[in-house]
Protein backbone atom coordinates (compact mmCIF):
# COMPACT_ATOMS: atom_id res chain seq x y z
CA UNK A 1 0.00 0.00 0.00
CA UNK A 2 1.15 3.48 -0.70
CA UNK A 3 1.95 5.61 2.32
CA UNK A 4 1.77 8.84 0.37
CA UNK A 5 -1.08 10.97 1.66
CA UNK A 6 -3.82 11.36 -0.92
CA UNK A 7 -3.96 15.03 -1.86
CA UNK A 8 -7.33 16.56 -2.48
CA UNK A 9 -8.27 18.83 -5.34
CA UNK A 10 -6.94 22.34 -4.79
CA UNK A 11 -7.33 25.55 -6.77
CA UNK A 12 -5.20 28.69 -6.73
CA UNK A 13 -1.90 26.96 -5.90
CA UNK A 14 1.42 28.52 -6.91
CA UNK A 15 1.87 25.70 -9.43
CA UNK A 16 -1.50 26.35 -11.06
CA UNK A 17 -0.95 30.14 -11.09
CA UNK A 18 2.61 30.06 -12.39
CA UNK A 19 1.77 27.13 -14.68
CA UNK A 20 -0.86 29.24 -16.42
CA UNK A 21 1.85 31.74 -17.44
CA UNK A 22 4.06 28.87 -18.67
CA UNK A 23 1.32 28.10 -21.22
CA UNK A 24 1.59 31.64 -22.62
CA UNK A 25 5.31 31.44 -23.33
CA UNK A 26 6.49 32.25 -26.82
CA UNK A 27 3.29 34.19 -27.39
CA UNK A 28 1.93 37.70 -27.75
CA UNK A 29 -0.60 39.25 -25.35
CA UNK A 30 -2.50 42.12 -26.93
CA UNK A 31 -4.33 45.13 -25.46
CA UNK A 32 -7.93 45.35 -26.70
CA UNK A 33 -10.71 47.78 -25.84
CA UNK A 34 -13.75 45.91 -27.20
CA UNK A 35 -15.01 42.52 -28.37
CA UNK A 36 -14.30 43.27 -32.01
CA UNK A 37 -10.62 43.99 -31.33
CA UNK A 38 -10.44 40.90 -29.12
CA UNK A 39 -11.57 38.74 -32.04
CA UNK A 40 -9.04 40.36 -34.37
CA UNK A 41 -6.34 39.59 -31.80
CA UNK A 42 -7.46 35.98 -31.39
CA UNK A 43 -7.62 35.47 -35.16
CA UNK A 44 -4.11 36.88 -35.49
CA UNK A 45 -2.80 34.23 -33.06
CA UNK A 46 -2.61 36.15 -29.75
CA UNK A 47 -2.20 33.80 -26.74
CA UNK A 48 -4.26 36.13 -24.54
CA UNK A 49 -5.84 39.56 -24.58
CA UNK A 50 -5.66 42.39 -22.04
CA UNK A 51 -9.10 43.98 -21.70
CA UNK A 52 -8.94 47.69 -20.93
CA UNK A 53 -11.02 50.78 -21.66
CA UNK A 54 -8.29 52.83 -23.24
CA UNK A 55 -4.92 51.72 -24.60
CA UNK A 56 -1.97 53.43 -22.87
CA UNK A 57 -1.44 55.88 -25.76
CA UNK A 58 -4.96 57.22 -25.18
CA UNK A 59 -4.53 57.25 -21.40
CA UNK A 60 -1.52 59.52 -22.01
CA UNK A 61 -3.48 61.74 -24.36
CA UNK A 62 -6.60 62.03 -22.20
CA UNK A 63 -4.83 62.49 -18.87
CA UNK A 64 -6.84 62.33 -15.63
CA UNK A 65 -7.16 59.26 -13.38
CA UNK A 66 -7.05 55.89 -15.14
CA UNK A 67 -9.01 53.14 -13.40
CA UNK A 68 -10.18 49.53 -13.78
CA UNK A 69 -12.39 49.00 -16.85
CA UNK A 70 -16.19 48.70 -16.90
CA UNK A 71 -17.21 45.13 -15.94
CA UNK A 72 -19.63 45.02 -18.88
CA UNK A 73 -16.84 45.62 -21.33
CA UNK A 74 -14.64 42.97 -19.69
CA UNK A 75 -17.48 40.44 -19.77
CA UNK A 76 -18.18 41.14 -23.44
CA UNK A 77 -14.58 40.36 -24.23
CA UNK A 78 -14.64 37.18 -22.11
CA UNK A 79 -17.72 36.14 -24.10
CA UNK A 80 -16.16 36.97 -27.47
CA UNK A 81 -12.98 34.89 -27.34
CA UNK A 82 -11.79 31.49 -26.10
CA UNK A 83 -8.21 32.56 -25.31
CA UNK A 84 -7.42 33.79 -21.77
CA UNK A 85 -8.54 37.30 -20.83
CA UNK A 86 -6.48 39.53 -18.54
CA UNK A 87 -7.51 42.85 -17.01
CA UNK A 88 -5.78 45.63 -15.09
CA UNK A 89 -6.23 46.84 -11.53
CA UNK A 90 -4.58 49.92 -10.09
CA UNK A 91 -1.49 49.33 -7.94
CA UNK A 92 -2.63 48.61 -4.38
CA UNK A 93 -6.32 48.69 -5.32
CA UNK A 94 -7.19 45.24 -4.02
CA UNK A 95 -10.93 45.89 -4.35
CA UNK A 96 -10.58 46.39 -8.09
CA UNK A 97 -8.68 43.10 -8.07
CA UNK A 98 -11.51 41.44 -6.10
CA UNK A 99 -13.97 42.68 -8.71
CA UNK A 100 -11.83 41.36 -11.57
CA UNK A 101 -11.57 37.98 -9.85
CA UNK A 102 -15.35 37.85 -9.44
CA UNK A 103 -15.76 38.55 -13.17
CA UNK A 104 -13.67 35.46 -13.92
CA UNK A 105 -10.69 37.06 -15.67
CA UNK A 106 -7.80 34.62 -16.10
CA UNK A 107 -5.00 36.97 -14.97
CA UNK A 108 -4.92 40.31 -13.16
CA UNK A 109 -2.30 42.88 -14.17
CA UNK A 110 -1.54 45.14 -11.19
CA UNK A 111 -0.45 47.86 -13.55
CA UNK A 112 1.47 51.12 -13.46
CA UNK A 113 -0.43 52.15 -16.60
CA UNK A 114 -3.40 52.93 -14.34
CA UNK A 115 -3.11 55.62 -11.68
CA UNK A 116 -1.77 54.04 -8.46
CA UNK A 117 -4.27 53.77 -5.58
CA UNK A 118 -1.65 53.26 -2.88
CA UNK A 119 1.78 54.85 -2.91
CA UNK A 120 3.23 52.50 -0.28
CA UNK A 121 1.66 49.06 -0.68
CA UNK A 122 0.96 46.76 -3.59
CA UNK A 123 -1.96 44.31 -3.29
CA UNK A 124 -1.47 41.05 -1.36
CA UNK A 125 -1.65 38.70 -4.31
CA UNK A 126 -1.67 35.51 -2.21
CA UNK A 127 -5.18 36.47 -1.12
CA UNK A 128 -6.51 35.68 -4.60
CA UNK A 129 -7.27 32.55 -6.62
CA UNK A 130 -6.73 34.51 -9.84
CA UNK A 131 -3.02 34.85 -10.64
CA UNK A 132 -1.29 38.23 -10.99
CA UNK A 133 1.24 39.64 -13.41
CA UNK A 134 3.23 42.70 -12.29
CA UNK A 135 5.68 45.07 -13.94
CA UNK A 136 9.30 45.53 -12.91
CA UNK A 137 12.20 47.75 -13.96
CA UNK A 138 14.87 45.72 -12.15
CA UNK A 139 15.45 42.43 -10.33
CA UNK A 140 14.72 43.76 -6.84
CA UNK A 141 11.35 45.08 -7.93
CA UNK A 142 10.52 41.79 -9.68
CA UNK A 143 11.39 39.79 -6.56
CA UNK A 144 9.37 42.09 -4.28
CA UNK A 145 6.33 41.49 -6.52
CA UNK A 146 6.94 37.71 -6.47
CA UNK A 147 7.24 37.89 -2.68
CA UNK A 148 3.77 39.48 -2.65
CA UNK A 149 2.44 36.58 -4.74
CA UNK A 150 2.89 37.64 -8.38
CA UNK A 151 2.90 34.54 -10.64
CA UNK A 152 4.33 36.27 -13.70
CA UNK A 153 6.57 39.31 -14.30
CA UNK A 154 6.77 41.68 -17.22
CA UNK A 155 9.48 44.26 -17.70
CA UNK A 156 7.71 47.63 -17.59
CA UNK A 157 9.08 49.57 -20.48
CA UNK A 158 7.25 52.82 -21.08
CA UNK A 159 3.68 51.99 -22.13
CA UNK A 160 1.90 54.02 -24.77
CA UNK A 161 5.03 55.47 -26.33
CA UNK A 162 5.65 53.04 -29.19
CA UNK A 163 9.30 53.39 -28.16
CA UNK A 164 11.09 50.20 -27.19
CA UNK A 165 14.07 51.87 -25.47
CA UNK A 166 12.75 51.55 -21.91
CA UNK A 167 11.65 47.94 -22.44
CA UNK A 168 15.19 47.15 -23.53
CA UNK A 169 16.66 48.99 -20.56
CA UNK A 170 14.47 47.17 -18.03
CA UNK A 171 14.89 43.71 -19.51
CA UNK A 172 18.66 44.12 -19.78
CA UNK A 173 18.75 45.36 -16.19
CA UNK A 174 16.85 42.31 -14.91
CA UNK A 175 18.93 39.84 -16.97
CA UNK A 176 22.22 41.49 -15.95
CA UNK A 177 21.33 41.39 -12.28
CA UNK A 178 20.38 37.71 -12.57
CA UNK A 179 23.67 36.95 -14.33
CA UNK A 180 25.57 38.71 -11.55
CA UNK A 181 23.82 36.63 -8.87
CA UNK A 182 24.86 33.45 -10.67
CA UNK A 183 28.47 34.11 -9.74
CA UNK A 184 27.85 34.89 -6.07
CA UNK A 185 28.70 32.48 -3.26
CA UNK A 186 26.49 32.00 -0.21
CA UNK A 187 28.25 34.71 1.80
CA UNK A 188 27.54 37.27 -0.87
CA UNK A 189 23.87 36.38 -1.33
CA UNK A 190 22.87 37.87 2.05
CA UNK A 191 24.33 41.24 1.12
CA UNK A 192 22.82 40.94 -2.37
CA UNK A 193 19.37 40.38 -0.85
CA UNK A 194 19.83 43.49 1.28
CA UNK A 195 20.92 45.52 -1.70
CA UNK A 196 18.06 44.23 -3.88
CA UNK A 197 15.60 44.83 -1.00
CA UNK A 198 14.21 41.35 -1.68
CA UNK A 199 13.75 38.21 0.45
CA UNK A 200 16.94 36.15 0.82
CA UNK A 201 15.17 32.88 -0.14
CA UNK A 202 14.07 34.30 -3.49
CA UNK A 203 17.50 35.78 -4.18
CA UNK A 204 19.07 32.38 -3.47
CA UNK A 205 16.53 30.66 -5.74
CA UNK A 206 17.30 33.03 -8.62
CA UNK A 207 21.01 32.52 -8.08
CA UNK A 208 20.54 28.74 -8.37
CA UNK A 209 18.06 28.77 -11.27
CA UNK A 210 19.76 31.49 -13.30
CA UNK A 211 16.30 32.85 -14.06
CA UNK A 212 13.24 34.16 -12.25
CA UNK A 213 11.09 31.45 -10.62
CA UNK A 214 8.16 32.73 -12.71
CA UNK A 215 7.70 33.50 -16.41
CA UNK A 216 9.23 36.80 -17.61
CA UNK A 217 7.59 38.73 -20.46
CA UNK A 218 8.44 42.13 -21.86
CA UNK A 219 6.05 45.07 -22.17
CA UNK A 220 5.89 48.77 -22.86
CA UNK A 221 6.81 50.19 -26.26
CA UNK A 222 6.79 47.20 -28.64
CA UNK A 223 5.40 48.48 -31.99
CA UNK A 224 6.93 46.34 -34.75
CA UNK A 225 7.73 42.67 -35.49
CA UNK A 226 11.43 43.46 -35.08
CA UNK A 227 10.76 45.06 -31.66
CA UNK A 228 9.05 41.86 -30.50
CA UNK A 229 11.89 39.69 -31.82
CA UNK A 230 14.43 41.99 -30.14
CA UNK A 231 12.78 41.51 -26.74
CA UNK A 232 12.75 37.73 -27.30
CA UNK A 233 16.43 37.68 -28.26
CA UNK A 234 17.20 39.71 -25.14
CA UNK A 235 15.58 36.97 -23.05
CA UNK A 236 11.88 37.78 -22.73
CA UNK A 237 9.76 34.62 -22.85
CA UNK A 238 6.96 36.46 -24.66
CA UNK A 239 5.68 40.00 -25.25
CA UNK A 240 2.80 42.26 -24.34
CA UNK A 241 1.80 44.65 -27.10
CA UNK A 242 -0.38 47.53 -25.99
CA UNK A 243 -1.03 50.54 -28.18
CA UNK A 244 1.30 49.26 -30.92
CA UNK A 245 -1.35 47.19 -32.71
CA UNK A 246 -4.64 49.02 -32.58
CA UNK A 247 -2.99 52.46 -32.94
CA UNK A 248 -1.43 51.38 -36.24
CA UNK A 249 -2.73 51.56 -39.82
CA UNK A 250 -3.66 47.88 -40.31
CA UNK A 251 -4.15 46.20 -36.90
CA UNK A 252 -5.04 42.68 -38.14
CA UNK A 253 -1.99 42.49 -40.36
CA UNK A 254 0.37 44.01 -37.80
CA UNK A 255 -0.95 41.70 -35.07
CA UNK A 256 -0.33 38.58 -37.19
CA UNK A 257 3.11 39.87 -38.16
CA UNK A 258 4.14 40.44 -34.54
CA UNK A 259 2.97 36.91 -33.65
CA UNK A 260 5.11 35.44 -36.44
CA UNK A 261 8.18 37.43 -35.44
CA UNK A 262 7.73 36.41 -31.80
CA UNK A 263 7.73 32.69 -32.69
CA UNK A 264 10.63 32.97 -35.16
CA UNK A 265 12.48 35.65 -33.21
CA UNK A 266 15.87 34.26 -34.25
CA UNK A 267 15.13 34.04 -38.00
CA UNK A 268 15.77 37.42 -39.72
CA UNK A 269 14.27 36.20 -43.02
CA UNK A 270 10.91 35.48 -41.42
CA UNK A 271 11.05 38.77 -39.46
CA UNK A 272 11.80 40.59 -42.74
CA UNK A 273 8.80 38.97 -44.43
CA UNK A 274 6.61 39.76 -41.46
CA UNK A 275 7.72 43.41 -41.62
CA UNK A 276 6.68 44.01 -45.25
CA UNK A 277 3.81 46.36 -46.13
CA UNK A 278 2.38 46.70 -42.65
CA UNK A 279 1.14 50.21 -43.24
CA UNK A 280 1.78 52.94 -40.75
CA UNK A 281 3.20 52.12 -37.32
CA UNK A 282 1.95 54.09 -34.33
CA UNK A 283 3.63 57.48 -34.28
CA UNK A 284 5.48 57.10 -31.00
CA UNK A 285 6.95 59.39 -28.38
CA UNK A 286 10.60 59.98 -27.56
CA UNK A 287 11.03 58.90 -23.95
CA UNK A 288 13.77 61.45 -23.16
CA UNK A 289 11.30 64.28 -23.74
CA UNK A 290 8.70 62.75 -21.37
CA UNK A 291 8.38 64.72 -18.12
CA UNK A 292 9.14 62.66 -14.99
CA UNK A 293 5.50 62.80 -13.89
CA UNK A 294 4.39 61.15 -17.12
CA UNK A 295 6.76 58.22 -16.82
CA UNK A 296 4.61 55.25 -15.85
CA UNK A 297 7.64 53.08 -15.11
CA UNK A 298 8.34 55.22 -12.03
CA UNK A 299 5.05 54.10 -10.52
CA UNK A 300 5.37 51.12 -8.17
CA UNK A 301 8.40 50.43 -5.99
CA UNK B 1 20.86 1.24 -27.49
CA UNK B 2 21.11 4.86 -28.54
CA UNK B 3 18.62 7.33 -27.14
CA UNK B 4 15.69 8.20 -29.39
CA UNK B 5 15.39 11.77 -30.65
CA UNK B 6 12.12 13.28 -29.44
CA UNK B 7 10.96 16.67 -30.67
CA UNK B 8 8.76 19.22 -28.94
CA UNK B 9 6.60 21.35 -31.22
CA UNK B 10 8.00 24.78 -30.33
CA UNK B 11 5.61 27.27 -31.91
CA UNK B 12 4.32 28.43 -28.53
CA UNK B 13 3.72 27.05 -25.03
CA UNK B 14 5.63 25.29 -22.24
CA UNK B 15 8.27 23.85 -24.55
CA UNK B 16 11.18 24.18 -22.15
CA UNK B 17 9.51 22.07 -19.45
CA UNK B 18 8.86 19.26 -21.94
CA UNK B 19 12.47 19.37 -23.16
CA UNK B 20 13.67 18.99 -19.56
CA UNK B 21 11.20 16.16 -18.83
CA UNK B 22 12.18 14.26 -22.00
CA UNK B 23 15.89 14.60 -21.27
CA UNK B 24 15.25 13.20 -17.77
CA UNK B 25 13.42 10.29 -19.41
CA UNK B 26 16.57 9.49 -21.45
CA UNK B 27 15.56 10.93 -24.78
CA UNK B 28 17.52 13.40 -26.89
CA UNK B 29 15.10 16.33 -26.77
CA UNK B 30 14.86 18.91 -29.56
CA UNK B 31 12.68 21.90 -30.31
CA UNK B 32 10.82 21.59 -33.63
CA UNK B 33 9.61 24.66 -35.52
CA UNK B 34 10.22 23.71 -39.16
CA UNK B 35 9.21 20.80 -41.44
CA UNK B 36 12.85 19.74 -41.91
CA UNK B 37 13.28 19.55 -38.12
CA UNK B 38 10.14 17.43 -37.85
CA UNK B 39 11.56 14.99 -40.41
CA UNK B 40 14.46 14.17 -38.09
CA UNK B 41 12.64 13.06 -34.93
CA UNK B 42 11.57 9.61 -33.74
CA UNK B 43 8.67 11.00 -31.72
CA UNK B 44 7.06 14.36 -31.01
CA UNK B 45 5.42 16.14 -28.09
CA UNK B 46 2.66 18.68 -28.65
CA UNK B 47 3.04 20.90 -25.57
CA UNK B 48 0.63 22.86 -23.44
CA UNK B 49 -0.16 26.34 -24.71
CA UNK B 50 -3.03 27.99 -26.52
CA UNK B 51 -4.49 25.44 -28.91
CA UNK B 52 -5.92 28.09 -31.27
CA UNK B 53 -2.54 29.85 -31.51
CA UNK B 54 -0.52 26.66 -32.01
CA UNK B 55 -2.96 25.42 -34.64
CA UNK B 56 -2.82 28.70 -36.58
CA UNK B 57 0.97 28.87 -36.50
CA UNK B 58 1.26 25.21 -37.57
CA UNK B 59 -0.87 25.90 -40.64
CA UNK B 60 0.92 29.18 -41.38
CA UNK B 61 4.40 27.67 -41.26
CA UNK B 62 3.58 24.55 -43.24
CA UNK B 63 3.83 22.14 -40.31
CA UNK B 64 0.22 20.97 -40.14
CA UNK B 65 0.29 18.69 -43.19
CA UNK B 66 3.68 17.08 -42.44
CA UNK B 67 2.56 16.54 -38.84
CA UNK B 68 -0.64 14.84 -39.97
CA UNK B 69 1.27 12.69 -42.45
CA UNK B 70 3.85 11.54 -39.92
CA UNK B 71 1.27 10.85 -37.19
CA UNK B 72 -0.84 8.90 -39.70
CA UNK B 73 2.31 6.99 -40.53
CA UNK B 74 2.68 5.93 -36.88
CA UNK B 75 5.10 8.55 -35.47
CA UNK B 76 4.73 8.37 -31.67
CA UNK B 77 3.10 11.56 -30.41
CA UNK B 78 2.20 12.84 -26.93
CA UNK B 79 -0.07 15.85 -26.40
CA UNK B 80 -0.67 17.65 -23.08
CA UNK B 81 -3.65 20.00 -22.62
CA UNK B 82 -3.55 22.07 -25.85
CA UNK B 83 -1.64 19.14 -27.33
CA UNK B 84 -4.53 16.83 -26.43
CA UNK B 85 -6.89 19.14 -28.31
CA UNK B 86 -4.58 19.00 -31.34
CA UNK B 87 -4.65 15.18 -31.29
CA UNK B 88 -8.44 14.96 -31.24
CA UNK B 89 -10.12 13.86 -34.46
CA UNK B 90 -12.93 16.19 -33.42
CA UNK B 91 -13.29 19.29 -31.21
CA UNK B 92 -16.74 19.79 -29.72
CA UNK B 93 -16.74 23.58 -29.96
CA UNK B 94 -13.89 24.64 -32.27
CA UNK B 95 -13.07 28.28 -33.01
CA UNK B 96 -13.84 29.00 -36.64
CA UNK B 97 -11.12 27.51 -38.78
CA UNK B 98 -9.40 25.75 -35.87
CA UNK B 99 -7.70 22.69 -37.35
CA UNK B 100 -6.30 19.67 -35.56
CA UNK B 101 -3.59 17.15 -36.34
CA UNK B 102 -5.86 14.32 -35.30
CA UNK B 103 -4.66 10.81 -34.56
CA UNK B 104 -6.97 9.81 -31.71
CA UNK B 105 -10.58 8.91 -32.34
CA UNK B 106 -12.04 11.15 -29.62
CA UNK B 107 -14.17 14.23 -29.15
CA UNK B 108 -12.57 16.87 -26.90
CA UNK B 109 -14.25 19.73 -25.06
CA UNK B 110 -11.99 22.76 -24.71
CA UNK B 111 -11.65 24.54 -21.32
CA UNK B 112 -14.10 21.92 -20.02
CA UNK B 113 -12.89 22.18 -16.42
CA UNK B 114 -13.43 25.95 -16.49
CA UNK B 115 -11.44 29.17 -16.62
CA UNK B 116 -8.25 29.91 -14.66
CA UNK B 117 -10.04 30.37 -11.32
CA UNK B 118 -11.20 26.74 -11.60
CA UNK B 119 -7.72 25.44 -12.53
CA UNK B 120 -6.63 22.84 -9.97
CA UNK B 121 -4.25 20.11 -8.85
CA UNK B 122 -5.40 16.59 -8.05
CA UNK B 123 -4.06 13.04 -7.86
CA UNK B 124 -4.82 10.96 -10.95
CA UNK B 125 -4.44 7.20 -11.33
CA UNK B 126 -3.07 6.50 -14.80
CA UNK B 127 -3.15 2.99 -16.25
CA UNK B 128 0.37 1.95 -17.21
CA UNK B 129 2.07 4.24 -14.67
CA UNK B 130 3.34 2.23 -11.71
CA UNK B 131 3.26 3.40 -8.10
CA UNK B 132 1.63 6.49 -6.64
CA UNK B 133 -0.98 8.46 -8.55
CA UNK B 134 0.32 11.11 -10.92
CA UNK B 135 0.08 14.72 -9.70
CA UNK B 136 -2.33 16.19 -12.19
CA UNK B 137 -2.00 19.93 -12.86
CA UNK B 138 -5.14 21.02 -14.75
CA UNK B 139 -4.97 24.53 -16.25
CA UNK B 140 -8.06 25.70 -18.14
CA UNK B 141 -8.01 22.05 -19.06
CA UNK B 142 -9.98 20.12 -21.68
CA UNK B 143 -11.61 16.76 -21.10
CA UNK B 144 -12.57 13.99 -23.48
CA UNK B 145 -16.30 13.73 -24.10
CA UNK B 146 -16.15 10.35 -25.82
CA UNK B 147 -13.71 7.94 -27.45
CA UNK B 148 -14.03 5.57 -30.38
CA UNK B 149 -13.45 1.82 -30.24
CA UNK B 150 -9.72 2.00 -30.99
CA UNK B 151 -8.88 4.49 -28.23
CA UNK B 152 -8.04 3.24 -24.75
CA UNK B 153 -8.98 5.33 -21.71
CA UNK B 154 -5.99 5.52 -19.34
CA UNK B 155 -7.42 7.82 -16.67
CA UNK B 156 -10.58 9.51 -15.53
CA UNK B 157 -11.03 12.29 -13.03
CA UNK B 158 -14.34 13.27 -11.49
CA UNK B 159 -16.17 11.14 -14.06
CA UNK B 160 -14.38 12.67 -17.06
CA UNK B 161 -11.77 11.10 -19.34
CA UNK B 162 -8.41 12.88 -18.88
CA UNK B 163 -5.87 10.47 -20.42
CA UNK B 164 -6.17 8.44 -23.64
CA UNK B 165 -3.98 6.26 -25.81
CA UNK B 166 -4.57 5.02 -29.32
CA UNK B 167 -1.73 3.04 -30.90
CA UNK B 168 1.29 5.39 -30.86
CA UNK B 169 -0.64 8.48 -29.79
CA UNK B 170 -0.93 9.52 -26.13
CA UNK B 171 -2.86 12.48 -24.69
CA UNK B 172 -3.46 13.95 -21.21
CA UNK B 173 -5.65 16.87 -20.09
CA UNK B 174 -3.08 17.68 -17.41
CA UNK B 175 0.56 18.85 -17.42
CA UNK B 176 3.09 16.30 -16.10
CA UNK B 177 5.84 18.57 -17.45
CA UNK B 178 5.11 21.10 -14.69
CA UNK B 179 5.53 18.67 -11.78
CA UNK B 180 9.01 17.17 -11.85
CA UNK B 181 7.38 13.69 -11.93
CA UNK B 182 8.44 12.45 -15.35
CA UNK B 183 6.74 9.02 -15.38
CA UNK B 184 4.31 10.04 -18.16
CA UNK B 185 7.27 11.16 -20.28
CA UNK B 186 9.05 7.89 -19.49
CA UNK B 187 5.95 6.02 -20.66
CA UNK B 188 6.00 8.01 -23.89
CA UNK B 189 9.72 7.50 -24.48
CA UNK B 190 9.07 3.75 -24.05
CA UNK B 191 6.46 4.00 -26.83
CA UNK B 192 9.07 5.69 -29.04
CA UNK B 193 11.64 2.96 -28.25
CA UNK B 194 9.09 0.22 -28.94
CA UNK B 195 8.39 1.63 -32.38
CA UNK B 196 12.11 1.95 -33.13
CA UNK B 197 12.64 -1.67 -32.10
CA UNK B 198 9.72 -2.82 -34.25
CA UNK B 199 11.10 -0.85 -37.22
CA UNK B 200 14.58 -2.37 -36.97
CA UNK B 201 13.35 -5.99 -37.00
From TrEMBL, chain B:
Pathway: Cofactor biosynthesis; pyridoxal 5'-phosphate biosynthesis. Keywords: Glutamine amidotransferase, Hydrolase, Lyase, Pyridoxal phosphate. One of its GO terms (cellular component) is glutaminase complex. It comes from the Bacteria. It catalyses: L-glutamine + H2O = L-glutamate + NH4(+); aldehydo-D-ribose 5-phosphate + D-glyceraldehyde 3-phosphate + L-glutamine = pyridoxal 5'-phosphate + L-glutamate + phosphate + 3 H2O + H(+). Its EC number is 4.3.3.6, 3.5.1.2. GO terms for biological process: L-glutamine catabolic process; pyridoxal phosphate biosynthetic process; pyridoxine metabolic process. One of its GO terms (molecular function) is glutaminase activity. It holds the Pfam family SNO. The active site is at residues 81, 175, 177. Catalyzes the hydrolysis of glutamine to glutamate and ammonia as part of the biosynthesis of pyridoxal 5'-phosphate. The resulting ammonia molecule is channeled to the active site of PdxS. In the presence of PdxS, forms a dodecamer of heterodimers. Only shows activity in the heterodimer. This is Pyridoxal 5'-phosphate synthase subunit PdxT. The lineage of its organism: Bacteria, Bacillati, Actinomycetota, Actinomycetes, Kitasatosporales. The gene is pdxT.
Amino acid sequence: MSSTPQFVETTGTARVKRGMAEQLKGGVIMDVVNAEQAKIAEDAGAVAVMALERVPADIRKDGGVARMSDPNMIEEIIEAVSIPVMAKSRIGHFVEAQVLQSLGVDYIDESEVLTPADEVNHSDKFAFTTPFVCGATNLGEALRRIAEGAAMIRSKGEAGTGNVVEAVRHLRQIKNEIAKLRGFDNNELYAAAKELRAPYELVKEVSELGKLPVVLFSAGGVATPADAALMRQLGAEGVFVGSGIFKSGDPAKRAAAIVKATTFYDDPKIIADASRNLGEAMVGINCDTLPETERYANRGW
Amino acid sequence: MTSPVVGVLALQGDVREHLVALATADAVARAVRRPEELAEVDGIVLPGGESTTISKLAVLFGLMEPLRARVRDGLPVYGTCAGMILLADKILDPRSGQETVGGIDMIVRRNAFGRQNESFEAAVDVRGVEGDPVEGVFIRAPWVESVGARAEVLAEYDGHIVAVRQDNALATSFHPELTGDHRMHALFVEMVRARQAAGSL
